[in-house]
Structures are given as structure tokens and as C-alpha cells.
Amino acid sequence: MSSPVHDRFLSLGLVIPPAPPPAGVYKPCLQVGGLLHVSGHGPVLPDGTLMVGRVGRDLDADAGKLVARQVGLTILATLLGHLGDLGRIRRVTRVLGMVNATDDFLRHPHVINGCSELFVEIWGPDAGVGVRSAVGMGSLPGNIPVEIEASFELA
Amino acid sequence: MSSPVHDRFLSLGLVIPPAPPPAGVYKPCLQVGGLLHVSGHGPVLPDGTLMVGRVGRDLDADAGKLVARQVGLTILATLLGHLGDLGRIRRVTRVLGMVNATDDFLRHPHVINGCSELFVEIWGPDAGVGVRSAVGMGSLPGNIPVEIEASFELA
Amino acid sequence: MSSPVHDRFLSLGLVIPPAPPPAGVYKPCLQVGGLLHVSGHGPVLPDGTLMVGRVGRDLDADAGKLVARQVGLTILATLLGHLGDLGRIRRVTRVLGMVNATDDFLRHPHVINGCSELFVEIWGPDAGVGVRSAVGMGSLPGNIPVEIEASFELA
């Protein structure tokens, strides 16, 4: 039997990409005490490739937001592989949203909302929302537009 | 009755800006176990507007340090709204100081000291000082000069 | 008597630089509950000076990886000064690897592996590997090529 949270996740009919193998010497996620920490994730597509480009030059803010949603789906892939049931997560605790943006880009929170709104769809408007920073990087691995790391409290 | 720490805070006569409402899908702060995590904050002025500009171009290092102090005051506004009494915080544990700087800027620690020195005024030279990274971002939301996220241990 | 982990560390014959004094208002490391958090560290050389330059312009990816290893050695210096015996660390939990890179640089994970592979040499392929983000900054203090902050679980 799956949890109510997991049932809601299943009812959304989301297309989950393959969980990305580590691109270096790190674990995709790690449990420390009652927290599950997730490494910085990029936007993996269902075919396993990564979305690329710089926000403010190759993508506008709305396109960047869709990328951040794809990063959120990729984080879900890692969580599903590790936990099985998304109801094992009590709440989102922290999101660090990193945007590969031009130096005049202004709307990082709008971009990262793409991931945060996905988490609200799954865990709801309280448990799905934690603290967050949404900031602009000078560059990201492989020129991905968005990288997000996150932490979750386990039930 | 307020705590000795809160009394000291009150005696400093600091002008605290309004606590900023979330600019996206996140909570300004969240308690997880015995820790209080604070989202990335910008420099809110008493009239509710944000300071803007890039350090190394629009502001020099000393002006950037004053901005970081204003970010610290803004974090205090969030803490006061959540906790009431600043003595409920046992210690500063972690500061991530992010400077919106030109790529040749060198003095990020000097800038972020503006926030860290404020925390020392309130919690003292041991409890007011945690671990820290002070780094340069490619861009920040709305072109704010400094964004800081922080964690605190609760008493 | 030192621990098996510490004995392995000693057998590696690594040249550990002097532990860097704080360059601002922060502690080099801080224990919070069962975790030891380490501030952002730069690459200190045995003579106490810092390596400098931007990856993708002044250094290539392989040279950047050597810098990240030197940052790892500098973190070890701080850990040794605080703990004495590296066996007091049960595992690496989190690494935030920040590369001072040109905006077209792509290989941040390769660079940060320089630190992560060092940690594997000491704590092994499971305990030496935690979650990680490897990202590109707009600038870093003093133009250091790499800054890394990390957290460890204590035994």
C-alpha cells in the first residue's frame, strides 16, 4: 500500500526522467539523521540527455522556469529510487536554486518557482515549501541552465 | 521579561526594516529539529524597498559591507517576527554570504563582515560567529548587491 | 593510539599546509550536534600563500583539479587542528565545490573531484563520499580558483 502523498504523486501522471548516475565522486542522495540530502541536480530529460543554455541569453525567464521544473522531476527520480514512496518524506526543508544566468538577469525566484511549485503539487502548500535561496551562478556544469540541491525531512 | 541577549539588542537602538514577504514559493525561515534555517535575504530598507547594484562597479567594498549589514538587519526582522525574543537563539551556526560582484572583485569576506559583525554585536564574539562562506555570484535577484542565508541553533 | 583511518592518513605521506586563520568574522569549523561544519576554504600552499587564478582562463580543468585537491588538504589541516585524529569523523556528508570559472567553463565536477578523491583516499569509497554540488562562481575572494565548504558526521 502506498501513502496518500504517493497516491497523489501517481495521480499527477508526471513523466519522471531516469535518475541520473553521479557525474563525479558524490552520492545522489544521503540520509543524515532524520534528513535526506540531495546533491545538486540538473534537468535530465526522459531520454537521459540534459537541457542546456544560459537564462537571459538562450532562454527567457519562463523557459528557465520550465527547466527548473525538469530539475525538480529529476530530483523526484532520485528520491523515488532511494525511498520508493514519496510519503516517506515529511517535508521539504531547504532548496538551493542556482541559475546559470546572464549578469543582468533579475528573475531568479521566478525561475526556481518551477521546482518549488512542483514540490507543492506533491507535498502540499505547507510541507512542500521550505527555506530557499535562488541565485545566479557564473557557470554550471555542461552549461545546464539550472542546478538545484535540496534537503528533506523524513517521516 | 526579555532575555539578556534581547535586552542587549534593544539597547543597540537598531532600525529594523519590515520583514520581507516571500518573493517566491518559500518560507522566510523554518525550524528543523533544534535549528532555525533562514532563506536567502536581501537588503530591505526601512521603507520596504531593496538596495541594488553590483559591488566593484556600482558600489565599492565598504559600501558593499554596509549593504551586508542591512541584509543582517533584514534577517533580524525575520527572526524577530518568528521568535519574538532573540535570546531564543543559542548561536549562529552558518552564514552563506553571496556578493553580486564584478569578476575582478577580491574582497568578499570584507563585504560579508558587515553582517557578521552585526551578529557579534547581538550574540557576542563566540555565539555570534559560525562557519561561513563568502563568495561572488554571477547575478542576484533584482540586482541586489548581497544575499545571505543563515542557520541558527535554538536554545 | 590513533585510529585505523588516521593511520591510513599518516601512511599516505600527504604534505598538509598550515591551517588558515579566519580571513573574516567566522570560525574555520563548528560542531553542531553530531555534525562538524567547515567554512569555505581556499587552496593554501605549504608556505601559507594561496593559489590564485580563474579556471578556463589562467588554469585548465586538470590544473583546477589539483587546486581542488589542495583545498582538500587545507580542509584536512583545519580538521586535524580541531580533532587531532581523522578517525573521529564517521563520514563525509556534504561538499559544496565552488569554482572561479569563465562563463563558458563546463567541467566543474572534474575540478571538484580533486578534493573528493582525496577524501576517498582517507575515509574510503563509502564514508569518504557525500552529497555534492559543483558549480561556477562569478568571483571568489582574492581570486582563488576554488573554494569548498564541507560537512562531516562525527563518530
Could you characterize what this model shows?
- The structure is a homotrimer of 155-residue chains.
- With 155 residues, chain A is an alpha+beta fold.
- Chain A has one domain (4-9, 30-43, 54-154): 2-Layer Sandwich (60s Ribosomal Protein L30, Chain: A), CATH 3.30.1330.
- Chain A is built from 3 helices and 5 strands.
- In chain A, strands 1-2-5-3-4 form a 5-stranded mixed sheet, with helices on one face.
- The first copy, chain A, starts with a helix and ends with a strand.
- Chains in contact: A-B, A-C, B-C.
- Chain A binds chain B through residues 33-35, 93-95, 99-110, 112-113, 116-117, 120, 129-139, 153, and chain B through 23-30, 32-33, 37-40, 54, 96, 98, 100, 103, 136-143, 147, 149.
